[in-house]
Amino acid sequence: MRIRIPLKCGCAALAFLLGLFSAAPSARADQRSFIRAYEYATQPQGNLEFELWNEIEAPRGGPFADALVTHRFELEYGLTDRWDVSLYQVFEHGGGGTPADRAFRFDSWRIESRLRLAEKGEWPVDVMLYGELERPADFTAPWEIEEKLILGRDFGAFGVVANLVFGQALATGDKAQHLFEVDLGARYELSPAVRAGGEFWAIRASPPGQPAANSYFLGPSVSLASQRVWIQLGAGIGLGSTAESLFARSVLGFNL
Question: pLDDT per residue over 43-102, tens digit each?
Fold first, then answer.
């Protein structure tokens, strides 16, 4: 059975979407341009924003049952104009294994905070600090922490960012786990409401009891914003030893 959408309704829907993202919002808060790299931005003081993250990690051309799907529900609040804090819960499903292993499950609680060290453009390179603490739902698993050094620079409508990421599991001996990641991105603001960009990221992970593994990804992204709502979409295609992998993410933000 085919469902036909009247042309009049289709045009109305298109007009609604164009109107929603046509105006340049004066306070977009934390609009994202990249699916991996963080930019030089925090919530304004007293502003509360809800973000819904959805991402897929899947083998290219492989069975969809092997794809890992992650959902994040996040609340961000501006403590000051340069310092914010976020609380979020993470859920997962899929990822291969038995049907029980693939079932929808609660993954973790997380809290993060970001601090901009100056106003944008005051320094030759904008510098922001990021910290995150994770409590896995599996209480036998160790707590995890993550630190990021976020660097950025705008040249008019063109902007570049670089993130240095360090992650550790709070354990010792053969249970130690470490992660190092580099995220590089460049974006162009086609209008105050529309951004397009591309990014590259490399990850070196050292799981407990296993040799270190490297992964590399490259892909495009696009971001649309209205005064109260923004959406960011993008994908990363695996390179080198991770050429058979695909990563995609969407983030939908509501300025409350």
Answer: 999 999 999 999 999 887 666 667 999 999 999 999 999 999 999 999 999 887 777 778
Structure tokens at 173: 């001996």
* DSSP calls for 162-227: EEEEEEEES--GGG--EEEEEEEEEEEEEETTEEEEEEEEEEEEE-TTS--EEEEEEEEEEEEE-S
Dihedral sign computed on CA atoms, order 106, 179, 208, 248: positive
Taking a C-beta distance cutoff of 8 angstroms, is the pair 52, 242 a contact? no
Beta bridge partners of 202: 182, 216
CB atoms < 10 A from the CB of 225, how many? 26
Task: Check if the beta carbon of residue 159 is closer than 8 Å to that of residue 39.
Answer: yes
C-alpha 39, offset from chain centre: 11
CATH code reported for the domain at 7-255? 2.40.160.40
Residue type at 106? F
Domain range annotation of the chain: 7-255
Reading the block at residue 147, the tokens are 């630190």
